[in-house]
Amino acid sequence: MAGAEQGGGVRRAPRLVMPEVVGLHWENARARLQSGGFNRSRIQFTESYEPEDSVVAQSPSKGQLASSETEVVLCVSKPSLIRFLPSIFQSAGAGADPDFVRRLLWVFHHFFDDLNRKVDGIHRQFSPDTADEEFLPWLAQWIAVTLDADWPARKKRRMLRSAARLYNRRGTAPAIRRLLQIFTEVEPEIVENSWPYNGFWVGVHSTIGVDTVVLPPVNLAHCFVVRFPRTYEELGEATVGRIHQIIRAEKPAHAVYYLQFADDPREA
Q: Which 8-state DSSP code applies to residue 236?
């Protein structure tokens, strides 16, 4: 239920019905709040007989109309760390605040609880599907893949999934073709044992600066041509540079290649 209104030229945040999240695990509670339009929530630990990490209270309560920018406070059941202290620290002296130490320990509990969640979920960082986006470049180093920082997370994860599956086929034409396809979203053609320059034949092909080039001897057994169905201008200088990086990283060390574009008339 939304009631967005404009007053005085300032658009107010819509008012929504607060969903009920009491009894849910706090992660599920946050997911339900987000699906209901509330993206701000805060965890507050409290001792309770309810299952650990379950929501025992919420503010605002269910059914209330609240702004979508409202911060929802979730009281989550958690055993206090005070139980690990000697009994002398579990009771306050005369005139002292009996809950001071307990409240102070909640600060440390929030810190350690967040750390423990990261440790308990560390296995998720080893999969391109579940790893946090900031971990993807670190994961890529395991399989010698360089990710472009400007790529969306979806493209980075697709590159990592394919690179991992193709790792045992590194250096082969299908593996190079697949990685280039993911990067450019255009499928190139790879012609093995081929080279676009057939040498210098006097009287046949000998126009200096047009169809001649000085190169060291080329062994066709170690050559391949990568043909893109796009022109150099369509791909752009930055993209072509990354294409070269991918090919050099994936090809066999002894092999040489020629990158050919749609506006290149030479035939390999």
A: -
Structure tokens at 76: 């989550």
Closest CA to 181 of 155, 204, 206, 150: 155
**Which two structure tokens, joined as six digits, stand for 90?**
């579990």
Predicted pLDDT at 152: 85
The tokens describing 136, both together, are 């993807």
Q: Supply the DSSP symbol for 230.
A: S
**Helices and strands (H and E) in the chain: how many:** 8, 10
Map tokens 């009281």 to a residue: 75
Contacts of 46 (CB under 8 A, 6+ apart): 56, 57, 75, 76, 77, 78
Condensed to tens digits (0 to 9), the pLDDT of residues 92-149 reads 655 555 577 777 788 887 778 777 777 888 888 888 888 888 889 998 888 877 787 8
**Mean pLDDT score across all residues of the chain:** 81
DSSP 119-174: HHTGGGGGSTTTS-GGGHHHHHHTTT----TTS-HHHHHHHHHHHHHTGGGTTSHH
Assess contact for 267 and 189: CB atoms under 8 A: no
CA–CA dist 27, 1 (Å, integer)? 24
Handedness of CA 34, 118, 166, 267 (dihedral sign): positive
Look up residue 34 and give its DSSP letter. Answer: H
Tokens at 55, concatenated:
């929501």
**Site of tokens 């055993």:** 79
Is the Cβ–Cβ distance between 143 and 250 less than 8 Å?
Answer: no
CB-CB contact of 230 with 243 (8 Å): no
- Is there a contact between 250 and 179 (Cβ–Cβ < 8 Å)? yes
66 within 8 A of 38, measured Cβ to Cβ: yes
